[in-house]
Amino acid sequence: MSDLLRNIIRFAFFIAAQHYVLNRVPHLHQYIVPYIYYLFILWLPFSISRINLLIVGFITGLTLDYFTNQIGVHAAACTLVAYIRPFVINILAPKDSSEFNYREPSPKAMGWTPYLVYALILTVFHHGYMTFLQWLQFGSFLDFLVKVVSTTGISMLLIITTELLFPRRLKFRTNTA
Amino acid sequence: MKNIFLFIRRYFTFFAFLALQAVALWFLFNYNRFHRAKGLGWANEITGRINSQFDKGEDFFNLKEENKRVHRTNDSLMNLLRGNFIKPDTSNRFVKDSIPYDTLGHYRRYIWRDAKVVYTSVNADKNYIQLNRGSNAGIKDNMAVINSDGSAVGVVVNVSPNFCQVMSLLHVQNKVKGELKKSGDFGTVEWDGKDPRYLTLKDIPGSVKIEKGDTVLTSKVSFNFPPGFMIGTIQEVIADKSTNFYVLKIKTAANFYNLQQVFVVENIQYDEQVKLNEATKKKIEDPKNNQP
Question: What are the chain A neighbours of B121 within 8 Å (beta carbons)?
Answer without folding.
Answer: 23-24, 68
